[in-house]
Every structure is written in C-alpha cells, then in structure tokens.
C-alpha cells in the first residue's frame, strides 16, 4: 500500500520544465469536451467545465516552459448553433475565468487577453473582456494567453477587408500600397506573431475556421486525446514532435 501511494504520488507530479526548445506561439483548438462528458454519462456542460480547468493547467504549463504566446479557440462564430443551455454554460465559464484572470494576472505572470468579434457578447462579458485586455496590455513582459471567443477566421478576414476598404475610401491608403502586412495588421492578432504550432485534440482533422490567415506556415498536430484529458505530458509529446519537424517555409 505504501509503495502504491509513493507511486501514485510520483505519478501525479506534473512534469517539470525541461531544456527542450519550445515554439514561440502555440495555438490549440480545444475540442472534445462534449465527447469526454458523453463517455462518462454526463451532460456536455460537465465536459466544458473540466475543459476550462485544462485550459488553466496547460496555459500555466506553457508559461512555465517558456512559451511566449498560447492561444486557444474557446468559442467559434459557428458555436451559436448549439443548444441555448450549452451556450449559456460556456458564457458563464467565460465570466468566471475572466474575473479570476483580472484578479490573478499579476501573481500568475500570464497576460490573459480575449480576441474575436466581441460586439455581440453580453454587456457584462464585454466589460470583463475590456478590463482583462487592459490589465494584459500593462504587462508586456508576461507570457500571453489568448482566448478566442466568438472567433471565426473568415469573419476576421472579412472585418479586415472592410476596415482596409474604409481607409482606401477615406483616401488614407492606396490600393497598390496594400501588402500582406497591411492585412496582418488589420486582424485581431495584429500585435502577435503567427502561430508556429497548432494542436487539435479529439481526433478531428480540420481547422474549423481557426486562424486561417495566420496559419499559413504553422505546423499542425492532431491527437485523439480529448481536451479535458490533455495533460502537460501530452504537450511535451506534441512539442517533441514539433522539434522533429523540418520547417522550410518554401525554401530547401
Ligand atoms: C470544444 O468541445 C468546446 C467548444 C467548441 C466550445 P466540443 O463541445 O466541440 O466537444 P465535442 O467535439 O462535441 O466532443
Ligand atoms: C471548433 O470546435 C471550435 C472550438 C474548439 C471553439 P467545433 O467542435 O465547434 O468544430 P467542428 O464543429 O467539429 O468542426
Ligand atoms: Mg467539437
């Protein structure tokens, strides 16, 4: 029994940061919460609650191993199609985590920010997002954890095109001066580097409208692990795989 306890204790010790190189920007499509709950005979909302805890654990782990940017897909522009109860559970989770992030940001040394089309969110959530983003902006030295809420890659590009068109119409920009950088600078991620590595748990092999422009040269990693089960060791395995990839960016 004593031996069992020792083993169990060692087992639950989180892996320690190692010397392995890490990507500068890791993004995750947090998927599989519903199936995780279904497997256990629980409502889908239970999966979202555990998935939110996983976000906290993995964001902290990424910060500890030196990842500067950790970005997660938390709610897509298409997720409004889900049952009202599920959407409202997710919104309540955002409320809780944003409040907590505002209070603990300085202690945790993680700048938590939100991107997406926030205009349609409830006013109290918008207010929390504004406070959270303002706190994050004060701390450029911290690692950054970005929650994508009501985010859609096509919606983001459409908004950028609109903004650029308005600048052209106002005579502030000439069409021939529009570069790839102009487009990047009009996306929600204007202040961030592109993701180096995009992880999708849950066995689905698609992007589901995530970071379409920014992912042009990202490395993708797909795993059958469901997001609520995703552990620091799974992140280590993913990063090891990233480190074995040969990124050529079109060169030789
Ligand atoms: C991801 O888990 C969370 C959100 C999309 C908000 P899902 O809820 O999509 O879980 P599955 O894919 O149904 O298992
Ligand atoms: C993608 O997951 C969106 C988020 C993780 C927030 P979905 O579960 O919505 O994607 P599909 O429907 O399987 O493509
Ligand atoms: Mg899903």
From TrEMBL:
Q: Which domain of life is it from?
A: Bacteria
The broad enzyme category this protein falls into is transferase
The signal peptide, as residue positions, is none
Residues where Mg(2+) binds? 31, 219
What does the record give as cofactor? Answer: Mg(2+)
Active-site residue numbers: 31, 79
Pfam assignment, any one: Prenyltransf
**Annotated binding of substrate, by residue:** 32-36, 44, 48, 76-78, 80, 82, 200, 206-208
Q: What is its EC number?
A: 2.5.1.-
The protein's UniProt keywords, in alphabetical order, are:
Magnesium, Metal-binding, Transferase
Q: What is said about its interaction partners and assembly?
A: Homodimer.
NCBIfam families assigned: PRK14830.1, uppS
What is this protein's function per UniProt?
Catalyzes the condensation of isopentenyl diphosphate (IPP) with allylic pyrophosphates generating different type of terpenoids.
Q: Which PANTHER family match?
A: DEHYDRODOLICHYL DIPHOSPHATE SYNTHASE 2, DEHYDRODOLICHYL DIPHOSPHATE SYNTHASE FAMILY MEMBER
What's this protein's name? Isoprenyl transferase
Source species: Butyricicoccus intestinisimiae
Tell me the lineage of the source organism: Bacteria, Bacillati, Bacillota, Clostridia, Eubacteriales
